[in-house]
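Check the record.
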Amino acid sequence: MEKKIKNVGLHEKDTGSSEVQIALLTDKIENLSQHIKKFKKDKHSSVGLLKAVNRRKKLLDYLKKNKKCRFAWKRYRIIRSSDCTFDW
């Protein structure tokens, strides 16, 4: 998990930026998906999965709306650059 924070974060101790939160939620979603595949009747975990997916969607929408440059770089998995310019 710390490795993902280093790759995605804005600085070394970044834990609260939208990018880091999205990365952590993605890990959580993957783990919950695997758990639900094994235990199909676990309704509490499926509710937690839905909440995590919705929270990640809101964060992605926030990045897309307010920080288009960083969203574009993260979405297409291109190395982050401080001086990107896009014509939206």
User: Anything to note?
Assistant: The chain has one domain: 2-75. The CA atoms of residues 15 and 30 lie 19 Å apart. Residues 76-88 have pLDDT under 50 and may be disordered.
